[in-house]
Every structure is written in C-alpha cells, then in structure tokens.
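Supplementary Methods, section 5.1.

A reviewer requested that the exact input to the structure prediction be made available. We therefore reproduce it here, unchanged from the version used in the analyses.
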Amino acid sequence: MILDRIFRFIGLILFAVIGWQAGVIITQTPNPFTDLNALQYIAPLTLLGGVIGWFISPWLTTRPALAAIRIIRQVPIEDVVAGAIGLALGLLVAALLAVPLSQLPDPFGAILPFVASIIFGYLGAMITVLRGHDVVRLLSRLRREPAKTETPAAGAHSLTGAQLPNGARPLLLDTSVIIDGRIADVARTGFLAGPLLVTRFVLSELQYIADSSDPLRRARGRRGLEVLDELRNLDAPQLQISDLDAPRAREVDEKLVLLAREHQLPLVTNDYNLNRVAALQGLTVLNLNELANAMKSIYLPGENMRLRVVQEGKEFNQGVGFLDDGTMVVIEDGARYIGQEINLTVTKVLQTNAGRMIFAAPFL
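The structure derived from this sequence is encoded token-by-token as follows.
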C-alpha cells in the first residue's frame, strides 16, 4: 500500500532525527561531525531511531485510521445522524450553562464550562443514539394526537400500531409459530381477532430453511410455507405480507422485537427465548404453547382417574401414561401394570413452561 510506505518513510526520518538529537544530548557535544568519539554514539542511536520509526509508524497512522474507517462503516447512518443531533443539543445546553459557570471563582470558572461541554455533549449523543426509536415514536404519537377523532377511510388500515377500523391490531407472526402449524387451526376457530402479519424477512428465512440440505430442516421449512398457504385461503383472519423491516438488527428475532415495540404489535411465537426477551421489554406476546397448556384437562391432588400404563418411567418401578391431550402422567409403582388400564389417584401436579406433568399412584 503506497500510503503505508509513505508514512513509513516519514516515520523513519522523524525517529532518526529524534535518535540524532538524543545522541547529541547524551554526549553533550556542540558539533558531532567534528567529534568522532561522540559520533560513534550518535550514529547508532540515529540508526536505531530510523528502524523503530519504520516499523511503528503504520501502527501510529494508517492502521488506526483503517480500523476507525471499518468501525464507522459498520455504524448505521441513523445512529450517526442521531449522534450528531444529540451532540448539537448537548453542546447547546452546555453553552447556556457556560455563562453562569464562568462567573464562579477561579479555577472553577475557567474549567467547569469546558467540563460541562464534554459531559453534556456525550450525554446528548448517547441518549439520542440509544433511545432514538423511542424519541421518534413519541414525536409521531404526538403528531397523530389531533387526528384521533378522524374517521378512517373504508377498508384502510395502518400497520403502525394504530387501531384498525374493527378495533383489532395485526398479529405479528414469527418463524417458529408458522412452522409449528397450529396457528392455522387456531385461526379457523375464529379466536384470533386481528389480521395475521408476516414480514418479508420471515418469508426469506422460511425459504432458506425450505432450501436446506438437511432433510429435517427442509421438511420444516416446507411445512411453514404450506401453513402460510392455508392461512392465505382463509376468509378471516386475513393474512397480510408486509415490507416492514428493522435494518439496524441482523437476527430475525431481534427484528421482530424491534418491529413489535416500534409499531405496538402483539407478537405470536412458540420460541421460549423470544417470548422471554419480548416480555421483558413490555411487549404483548401470544404463545401457542401456553394456550395449549391452558386448555389441557386439570386434575388436582386427591382426584381419581383411570388410565392405561404404556411404558416404564425414568426412575425404578415407575410407569408412564398419557392423557388424551398428551399430558404425561408418572405412576409410582406402575411398571408392573404396563399394558393395563388401572385406577389412579393424583398425588402431585407440576406446571412448567414446557407443559403440565401429573404424578399419580394406583389404587384398587
């Protein structure tokens, strides 16, 4: 790289001069060219300075500059603009405070205005970068306030978090709930009030999974595309494909959380981690697994049931059976009854995010 060599030569000359001056100071000779004894010390120091300058000058010039360029290229333009606006606002506040701060006695009157400029400039830039979306959403909400009483046009609906004419909001679907397939069955029952919203990047992820070389992943992706086709053929709720995106985010889950927060959309998912992240940010999350668990039969300790023991349990002499809804029943001392239908008494019920588990014991 030409620029790198140019700075190497500049560094060589600069550090050679520094080495020469260091030798002159050490030998304390006024004219090194006439003093051979001094020159034998000055010349090696000059050579050493030139070598050091040749090797370290790129690390002081071009390498930091290239690293800074790479970092700047990775920063979204929205953050750059937001940071510049925040910096300007912070410096404006610091300028207003500079007048009273400059009236303080020395040394505070000379130091504090400069310190205030640094602090408020930094705070302004960081606040606008970190909370830029919240500020934009607040301003857009304030701008929409006067138009709240207006009647929307027939058939028109907004995907910005506003209410639809029928009072329902679009439900934002993630990839896991589409691949799961039960969303189509729930939609047919009519329990989903709002239209179902699928973004382009979710469709792209489904297509990527469907084109996978792994047969299992390919089957799951194709299953998701078939479920979308089923939803598209339903009269209600309506399936909508949206171009909404969050360019700042890279992962699909992160994009969904940002869109749900920015447009105030309920998020429909079966992904436990996405569910937790979205709930921690105060978003409305509809989890089909939780719905399925809520619809399962409820047994309380002390109640009786009749069940077939189908297999052994993990612990010694345990048996396992399943209710019609798939709930696992662990039967103490039930291994000897495998293949038989017996009477049971419920001893304990455990409810977890993964589902409900019932413990029971046989009785005559």
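Residues 2-65 form one domain. These observations are discussed further in the main text.
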